[in-house]
Amino acid sequence: MKRGFSFSLPVTVVISAIAFIYFCTVFIFIDRWFGLMTSPGVMNAVVFTGVAVTCVLNYGFAISTDPGRVPSSFMPDIEDSEVPIHEIKRKGGDLRYCQKCSHFKPPRAHHCRVCKRCVLRMVLLVGSLTNDSQNDEQQSADSFRTAYVICGLLLVPLSVALSVLLGWHIYLILQNKTTIEYHEGVRAMWLAEKGGNVYKHPYDLGSYENLTTVITCNETAPLLFLR
Question: What's the domain of life for this entry (predicted)?
Fold first, then answer.
């Protein structure tokens, strides 16, 4: 069952930023440096357009792909002695139960307020045309400088934020953790050290195995790049 599309301010801001950066890069920067009718200009425009299309497609997949749902018939095996301790509620010692979905949570599942259901391995942005030529050139230069500044103000924080986000998720993939599991692991590590024990993430299979587990395409784990 696909989710219906509705207005989202963060998505609108991201799409607007991508469109603005693309327009400035192709029709202002590349056009002024090389010219869009020259071979270097066409080559740079084609390459940047390919990168922009790839970004938009991946972002589209990310916001439109159904993350799945927990079957309503799911029931935990209470007699299984290998149930991880972190799959027990922190308070009360009961099995993890979602009050909003009214069913038990399987391992590594958390409730998503956007999807309104539990999700497995959920991972948590006109000028006048009548001026004289000299004044028009001055206004054109000013508008180009304004575009440079605005584009730079968008690109610098976006580049820093995306670089940090990329490094963070590479670390999580190599550890086979979700963002929520990382924060839960910090508390579990503190409790283990307090009790004189050593905590180890139960799903950590080693960097190579973690990487292949996340990106391998099989019946239960679609390709990472399409999620």
Answer: Eukaryota
Can you list the residues of the chain whose pLDDT is less than 70? Answer: 1-6, 77-94, 122-145, 147-148, 217-227
Handedness of CA 95, 96, 100, 106 (dihedral sign): negative
Torsion region of 22: left, alpha or beta (phi above 0 gives left; psi -120 to 50 gives alpha) = alpha
**pLDDT score of 73:** 76
Q: Which two tokens stand for residue 161?
A: 């934020």
Q: Quick one: 50 and 81 in the same domain?
A: no
Phi-psi region of 38 (alpha: psi -120 to 50; beta: other; left: phi over 0): beta
Whether residue 7 sits in one domain with residue 51: yes
Residue 191 has what pLDDT?
82
* Of the residues 24, 45, 64, the one at which a domain ends: 64
Q: How many other CB atoms sit within 10 Å of the CB of residue 121?
A: 19
